[in-house]
Amino acid sequence: MYFNGFYHLFYQYNPNGSVWGNIVWAHSVSKDLINWINIEPAIYPSKPFDQFGTWSGSATILPGNKPIILYTGIIDANKTQVQNYAVPANISDPYLREWIKPDNNPLIVPDVSINKTQFRDPTTAWMGRDGHWRIIIGSVRKKRGLAIMYRSKDFMKWVKAKHPLHSTAGTGNWECPDFYPVSLQGTNGVDQYGEEHKFVLTNNMDVTRFEYYTIGKYDTKKDRFIPDTGSIDSWKGLRLDYGNFYASKSFYDPSKNRRVIWAWANESDIQPEDDIAKGWAGIQLIPRKVWLDPSGKQLVQWPIEELDALRTQKVQLSNKKLNSLEKIEVTGITPAQADVEVTFSFASLDKAEPFDLSWADLYAQDICALKGSNVQGGLGPFGLATLASQNLEENTPVFFRVFKAQQNYKVLMCSDATRSTLKHNETMYKPSFAGYVDVDLAATKKLSLRILIDNSVVESFGAGGKTCITSRVYPTLAINDNAHLFAFNNGTEPITIETLDAWSMNKAKIN
After folding, report:
1. Nearest-CA neighbor of 282 among 297, 300, 263, 298?
2. Among 107, 222, 336, 508, which is 20 to 30 Å from 370 by CA?
3. Which helix (H) or strand (E) segment is 311 a member of?
């Protein structure tokens, strides 16, 4: 949340170790969303209504500029879940260090219709035009994912609505749901829950461990979310990010009139002993500004502008042709910690390979696994090989491949971690993440890509942020000064690097 000039990040944290357990609400504050001050935990198990755990939730700013937190408390060894609240002990403290959990908790207890062990993660509240507050809480019933709605006049007494805000059969438990409006024009954020806007409902699917979103309308009279026609409302739907990205939270930032989303990325080396050796597990990704694409069919995301302040040494390339099977190294920066923006162009779409109709039911990442960066195509694969060793034994390529479909062209964007490390661990998670990019190639014959590289993280933004993919990787050779960055073209059709701007990145300041 943004409150009185400071951004506040609350996050699930184990103060006793680098594996999951003993979860508290850790708390950090910032002036710019980039440099942070860690302060003492805000919420931790201490009362009967949360003695077995203080799990996720959200902050709301009430009228009179008063912040309040709603969170899930675990009340017994069976993981029975209730919804509690906390308020600042001293609202004049700019850091809001201390939080109080009043004795009239819990505010919401699951009734007999609710799965009490899958009932968590209350959203930021919004006020309807009837003056009543609303929240949704993630749950499941008979494999149907639920966004259960509650209403309140005074934020203390909450009543469950007769119907969920939305539900979808066969999707399993919904975690960390989010629901927010987006403007029909421009990139500014919106904090008004009226029918004049489009709405976004995001859900983190416990079964797949991916986050999905649907765009639609909010019927304020019936308190129902209605996905737009063609907006797929299931596991085959749109994702905010097609990689290591989970449990994002959005908030409206009044200081810059924007909607910001921020997500967590898990480790991919899986084993607890790896986390113990690091001394930490899980990271926050770079905060992203989010808005509705002019088509109205999807969201667009872009790293917040404050990140640019970390850019230092810069190199540039322009009008560099890459013939078939050619690569060039991008030198003059620190490839292990860099920000890269590149625009590729091509003279013709004639060499695009046909899209196999047998792939129609496959996920994009399945096709990326079949058609990797070293499998020569017509138009593509081309892109950037990040966190690469000198001879490419290790690298995480982020690339495009263009297919000719029946009526148009399909653009596949991949971030392939399968060769990201020589470290051998059978449990390591190294998938070929991928998504499609909705662009009109016939009109532009261009594709842009921005990549943020930070040692074990590769965050990629295709076509100005239409398709985003995050990979967590752990190279053994391509680390620190031994990391390299290459632009490559493994298609038969020549491509041109119209522009490439790359920056070394300073470290953010913690404390």
Report:
1. 263
2. 336
3. strand 311-322
